[in-house]
Amino acid sequence: MLLLNASGCLDALTAPEVARQLDGFVTKTITPLPREGNAPPRIAETAHGMLNAIGLANPGRELFLRETLPRLRELGPPLWVSVGGFCAQDYADTCAALDGVEAIELNLSCPNVDEAADSAAEIVAACRAVTPLPLYAKLSAAHPDVGEVARAVAAAGADGLSLINTLRGVALDPRTLRPVLARGTGGLSGPGLKPIALATVHACYAATQLPIVGMGGVMTGIDALELIACGARHVALGTVLFADPDAPGRLREELRRAVEELGVAQPDDVHAFAHSSEKTLEIGSIVVS
After folding, report:
1. Residue 244 lies in a domain
2. 249 and 21 in contact (C-beta within 8 Å)?
3. Can 204 be counted among the known catalytic residues?
4. Percentage, residues of the chain above pLDDT 70
5. What is the structure's pLDDT at 37?
6. Is residue 110 in some structural domain?
7. What total of structural domains would you count in the chain?
8. Is the dihedral of CA 61, 65, 68, 72 positive or negative?
9. FRET partner for 158 with CA separation of 20 to 30 A, picked from 98, 188, 210, 284?
10. What is the domain range of residue 164?
11. 264 pairs with which residues across the strands?
12. Other CB atoms within 10 A of residue 182 CB
């Protein structure tokens, strides 16, 4: 199991000590041209997480390749580059320009931009044609049949999946009953997202058996273990990093204790356990099957 960050939830250049606690660092989504993102306010707290409407703010591909990527390489952790765009060619051009990174995460599901991208499978196929690097398709749980989307991107050449991106929500100011965010809507992350993330990982693993980076509401080691049991091979931390920069180390220790209590050697030993009716685990004197 690898422990990563969710794209956009950690600036490795300003918090290198946090990035070095991870098994790999995932960059903020890079688009062909620079983007300022949405107008502020762009973040709102909710009772069970937070909303963000950053809008893919980033320096653009040219500056990222020339200045940011070399600095990130100096930090040490393997790099996953998150790639975005507004048509298949946007994604493919950026993928073609990348080398010497661990993997590429294709952001196919940002809820905070208005431009309509091409279909997920078309984008993956265009990127597969121009790069040998591992491609992870980041999907949204908002699709009514996300398993079908997972099968489509797998057939188009995806090597893995990242699940899930945020889901669109609204927060109102109780004093004005108007949206807090300037854009109106934003992407929900945090604890409230976890049951949806578990269901999506479960469905997409059943549909494809592709390697999955599970994310969405991971606050504790048990949260991470549940994603692994649903089919995730790796786990990414998002909102928790804003409040607890020491979360990677804490979650590793919580995972260690959790698998010890289950009587298994490592988290990978419970991979996809939720899909099997034949496996059993002994938790103390209780047998779970």
Report:
1. yes
2. yes
3. no
4. 93
5. 94
6. yes
7. 1
8. positive
9. 188
10. 3-38+54-168+190-288
11. none
12. 12
